[in-house]
Amino acid sequence: MTLDRRAFAAGLTALPLLSAAPTALAAAPISKNGGARPGPFLLGADITWIPQDEADGAQFFANGRRQDILAILDGAGFNAIKIRVFVNPENGYSTQRKTDPWAGLAQTVAMARRIKAAGMHLTISFHYSDTWADPQKQGKPAAWKDLPFDALVKAVGDHTRQVLGALVKAGARPDMVVIGNEITFGTLWPDGRVPLPVPTGNPATDAVHLSVPDAGGFDKLARLLSAGLDASRETVPGVKTSLHNHLGRHWTIVSHWMDSLLARGVRFDATGFSCYQQAAEGDWANTFARFGERYRDHGFYVAEYSSRKRYVNDLVFDAPGQRGWGTFIWEPTRHQEAIFDQDGKNAGEGPRPNLLSQGVNAAEAPGAQIAGAPPPHPEKTEHGGRYDANAFMELYRQMARDYGLRKG
């Protein structure tokens, strides 16, 4: 793939215009600690697929001994788990599994109880959809698709309260809540959709998001997000709240997005970034440094990554003012550079390109087709079998020691 350097440069030169909103920076601060890390560094993982894999017969081993996946992760230094929740997955992702709707309320409560019983930090990520909500699609749940906008805002708040209330009642109080998944371009399209302000350099992304005539815009997005954020604080007093932008590599877009939300009074504690790929080496470091300078009442963390494990974690841990809260590797049992092996080889699909010039990482534009690119490999429909912890576990043990999370 050839990167359009002129389009990318146009995005960079637009920075002063897009970020020139000084009043936004003072709007609605919420953090009580100046955005600094509120506790130990979060060495985390998103393992929402685990209940589904266990139902398919997955078993997890470390040093030849079968153990609970949470015990294995804890032994490697992980101290935080993130799980996602859909609205009615039996109408979407779990259409073929109606007796076991994956990432629905009942399964989320059960998994959350396991996480808290293991003594780990718990983050709940709301998708506000019946299936995947990601940069390429943010579809409304079937039950909400015909609601007028005011009723849609209410539905967001009601659903958030329902899920969090059930967790609290079950003794699985979350420590952090993420309102929306990878919502760089908004959520609950088209009402809460926002178009790109400048090209990203990724042709799969730019083709979908540069021209969106029916986008509801930031005013509507702000109301939808505030409904979820307010409901979170009401239901779980003191919980940390966050939003999720998938373009951690693109400071121009991140700052425009942040300024636009803050100027509309959206109140949250931290921003999560996806960090799968860069346009140029140093993009993530640039975003983290400038975020800390510009948004002093907010922390940040990496909500998703896979490859470059040590590099990404060190960037976040070493952020000035301890504004980097932590990281969550995405589905590390079977995605990209997995930390488990199956049948003597890595259980994931393997590492992906670090730079856009090396090829597009599909994690940045899920499901997108690049003209001329070979078709993607079909995904396995079942993930049972034996999973053995691999050498990446020692890397995490070392990071846990270096970050003061473990001794010895």
Automatic annotation (TrEMBL):
Q: Which GO terms describe its biological process?
A: pectin catabolic process
Cross-referenced Pfam families, in alphabetical order? Glyco_hydro_53
UniProt-listed Enzyme Commission number(s): 3.2.1.89
Q: Transmembrane ranges?
A: none
Give the family per the record: Belongs to the glycosyl hydrolase 53 family.
- What is the residue range of the signal peptide feature? 1-26
Q: Enumerate the Gene3D superfamilies for this protein.
A: Glycosidases
Cross-referenced InterPro entries: GH, Glyco_hydro_53, TAT_signal
Recorded GO MF terms: arabinogalactan endo-1,4-beta-galactosidase activity; glucosidase activity
Kindly state which reaction or reactions the protein catalyses.
The enzyme specifically hydrolyzes (1->4)-beta-D-galactosidic linkages in type I arabinogalactans
Full protein name: Arabinogalactan endo-beta-1,4-galactanase
Q: Which keywords belong to this entry?
A: Glycosidase, Hydrolase, Signal
Keyword Signal tagged: yes
Q: Which PANTHER family match?
A: ARABINOGALACTAN ENDO-BETA-1,4-GALACTANASE A (PTHR34983:SF1)
Top-level lineage group: Bacteria
Q: Which organism is it from?
A: Caulobacter radicis
Primary enzyme class: hydrolase
